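[audit] Reproducing an earlier prediction to check determinism. Same input, same settings, fresh worker. If the tokens differ from the archived copy the diff job will pick it up downstream; this log only records the rerun itself.
[audit] input (289 residues):
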Amino acid sequence: MRSGALLNIRKALMFAIAIICISVLAGGCDSIKGITDDQPQKVQEAYIEYFKAVQAENVEALKRLVAREKAKELQGPEAATMLGMIKAFYPAQSRITAVNINGDAATIKLTGRSQDGTVHGTVNLIKEDGLWKISKEDWQVKISMPEEKPASAPIPDTSKPFEYHKVVGAWKGHEAGQSSDEWDFSFGENYEVSVRNSTGKGYRGIAMSDWNLGLSGGSLRVLRGGAVFDVKITEAPNKAYEGKISLGSFKLMGDVLQLCGSEPGLMKRTSDFASADGIRCFELKRSQP
């Protein structure tokens, strides 16, 4: 093999290892101060767009999504090859567990799974020209030793909805595209969700986020600027729905809450605020804290 080809391969490997560094992460979190309420959402959006570009191996999109210094490393004809190696290091599925912001710097904490065990990641972002850009990314793998267990259904990788505490209370509103109907939503501090319409029909469930369900092309579809919001149904007029999960997302805009959810068990998500194809969306206003 020519020495020039060997050099390109070494450079690609060094680039991949620098971006996806399997190392011990430093502890601690930056405090959130001096930011607007929508900044955590904007940070999440920036990371999700970056994740999609990595999965699609889209070099040109990545140049726009990473910090200027990092974008320089994506120049040259071998960039596509290096990006393929980066993708191979990247966990196939991960979920955001924390977002911390300090001025023009932000940190996202993630957890995911690989064939070797649990994966924990830290993504650093900086604000350039008013936009959040990825500046550094580190991952560590906690090796899991195989255990003999009786055959059982897999346990879903779940967490609580991002910033759920902001929607705790009672809300009233209408389904998207409707004006004559009226719905009451209640979000309890214990993550219990209760929904009723003007005819008395509704359901009860537990709010949750499962990043392993409803994936489309390796990514999740949520309302733009929103976050994952799923509900495990505990009580419904249709008993077949009980125990199943309604996949969806929510978006808080001042005193207005947009919420979408699929038919329980449908395993489908949407980024469009519209009731269609087994998905229902609602626009609500707070009626009681």
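[audit] rerun output stored. Observation attached for the diff report: The helical segments are 3-19, 39-56, 59-65, 68-71, 79-89.
[audit] end
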